């Protein structure tokens, strides 16, 4: 299976610089920044969580690579109260905390490199674009192993790991994750048609730990 080509999006320097700019935009204009993969994708993810019989408003939910924290803001808006976000960019965490404070939500954000450690035990772990960024690093094979090991360890035995990607298909993710997770659901995402074939620009999958 081919790996993705190395890109600056796989470096911490790129994201530190990006979130420095977003902090300035938020301070100057109140703009929280981009919602990755669009609001429709976020709505579909939250709808899946709400329909899941084992999830409650008190479920312990972790967003890995939370960036500006907008996914957790949307969950807080829907009444979820046990929310955590981690990112290896200090400026991303600064921005996320500022946005949450301005909107009056208590969300626990912390600076953390999930390739080094991931503390806690969570009912739901969510990744929207973080695995994509890791996959654009020259050390993907090493980083993938650390990522899977730490996410697997931090997920409750009965919990769910939800991942959204624009770089990998369901079959590719299943191959990557086969020693740690099993796919249990496919969250519908926008489709496109080209040449008589139908495909997806974004893939959202739900996994249980093995």
UniProtKB/TrEMBL annotation:
Q: Has UniProt tagged this entry with the keyword Cytoplasm?
A: yes
Name the Enzyme Commission number(s) assigned to this protein.
2.1.1.-
Q: Does the keyword tRNA-binding apply?
A: no
Which segments of the protein form a coiled coil according to its record?
Answer: none
The record's section on SUPFAM superfamilies has: S-adenosyl-L-methionine-dependent methyltransferases
One GO term of the biological process aspect: methylation
* A Pfam family per the record: Methyltransf_31
What keyword terms does UniProt attach to this protein?
A: Cytoplasm, Methyltransferase, Nucleus, S-adenosyl-L-methionine, Transferase
> What range(s) does the Methyltransferase domain occupy?
56-185
Location relative to the cell: Cytoplasm
Q: Which HAMAP family match?
A: Methyltr_EFM4
By its UniProt entry, which PANTHER family does this protein fall under? EEF1A LYSINE METHYLTRANSFERASE 2, PROTEIN-LYSINE N-METHYLTRANSFERASE METTL10
The identity of this protein, by name, is Protein-lysine N-methyltransferase TcasGA2_TC003501
Gene source species: Tribolium castaneum (Red flour beetle)
């Amino acid at each position: 299976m081919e790996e993705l080509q190395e890109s600056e999006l796989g470096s911490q320097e790129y994201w530190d610089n990006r979130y420095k700019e977003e902090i300035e935009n938020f301070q100057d204009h109140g703009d929280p920044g981009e919602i990755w993969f669009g609001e429709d994708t976020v709505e579909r993810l939250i709808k899946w969580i709400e329909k899941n019989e084992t999830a409650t408003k008190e479920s312990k939910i972790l967003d890995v690579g939370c960036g500006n924290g907008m996914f957790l803001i949307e969950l807080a808006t829907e009444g979820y109260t046990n929310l955590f976000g981690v990112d290896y960019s200090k400026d991303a965490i600064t921005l996320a905390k500022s946005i949450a404070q301005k909107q009056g939500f208590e969300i626990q954000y912390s600076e953390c490199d999930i390739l080094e450690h991931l503390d806690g035990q969570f009912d739901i772990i969510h990744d929207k674009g973080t695995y994509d960024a890791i996959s654009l690093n020259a050390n993907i094979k090493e980083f993938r192993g650390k990522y899977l090991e730490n996410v697997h360890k931090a997920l409750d035995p009965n919990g769910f790991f939800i991942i959204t990607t624009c770089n990998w298909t369901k079959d590719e993710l299943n191959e990557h994750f086969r020693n740690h997770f099993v796919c249990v659901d496919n969250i519908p995402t926008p489709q496109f048609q080209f040449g008589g074939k139908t495909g997806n620009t974004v893939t959202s999958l739900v996994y249980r730990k093995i």
